[in-house]
Amino acid sequence: MSSFDRSTLSRRQFMKLGAGAAVAAASGGLSSLAFGAQPVTLACSFRSLTSPYYVAFNKGAQNFAKNAGLSYVPLTTEGSSEKGIADVRALLQKTGGNLVLNVDPNDSADARVIVEACAKAGAFVTTIWNKPKDLHPWDYNPNYVAHLSFDGVANGEATATELFKSMGGKGGVVALGGIFSNVPAIERKAGLMAALKKFPGIELLDFQVADWDSQKAFPIMQAWLTRFNSKIKGVWAANDDMALGAIEALRGEGLAGQLPVSGMDGDQQGLAALKAGEMNSTVYFDPYWLGGIGLSMGLEAKQQKLQVASLSKDKREMFCKPTLVTKANVQQVMALQAAPTADWNNLYARVAGPVVYR
């Protein structure tokens, strides 16, 4: 002790001091850190760090954690729902539930298991992209903070429309889809089908799922080139990674840049391919922002700065604002991507409106 020695206190006086300190701590008068409680841990769970999209997502999370002065743990599912769920459960146990989690579930059904585990442990969770339609944040107040996504139908239709226009509104197209049961994959395919109805001169030659993966898209595209040959006049892909796999197959036949290819996500390699004329369009979702803003919402809810239970539903399940990228604005978007910035305190700056269920 600084001004007096503990030995000068009687045992009774010391016990009184200890009891008073405990009461003060319980009422917020003393920091819980004085009693050995650990600070909150921040974490993101997402598919893989081999994808440029998730590399940017992770960097956004790291930046937010640095600004918040808290430790951060990245968890990767590597395409395995079992691994994703097990890793979250292990971290919940390790942190005693003193956790804020931002999760892009490997599969839609995984979201329910993860949300329930977080709510039971007292952790705070935000979901990105994937969740079942009947799972809502307000069903798990206050622990399930929010769900953030983008309108996959509108974006799938937008890239398909750009592709079909570049084809002159006629000819055969092949299409690559994401994981069959992923909400974004389902919605983006629905957008493609909506665009096809508006362009009767376009024929869908084949649609195959490549699980968001360029390595799976590559042999599919090779097989299509053998099967359909010159009938293929364009390629639609539900994300940039699969579009790049298709472009590699086209390059092997000397066709890269000759056939228009559309993608989605606006990752670094996709934008570079668009600038080089090998892609026709993509959609930029700013994964850097998504990685950090989900953590920011969760931390504010945990700290009771954000009273989530009193928020309207349109501030709990939200579509965010994307950017359709073409040759006309690719340079501008590349500049934003090269030096990403985000105001982590402005939680709703990029919200477009409530999630629409179709």
TrEMBL record:
It comes from the Bacteria. Pfam families: Peripla_BP_4 (PF13407). Residues 1-36 form the signal peptide. PROSITE patterns: TAT. Its main location: other. Residues 47-301 form the Periplasmic binding protein domain. It is found in: Cell envelope. NCBIfam families: TAT_signal_seq. This is Monosaccharide ABC transporter substrate-binding protein (CUT2 family). It comes from Paraburkholderia unamae.
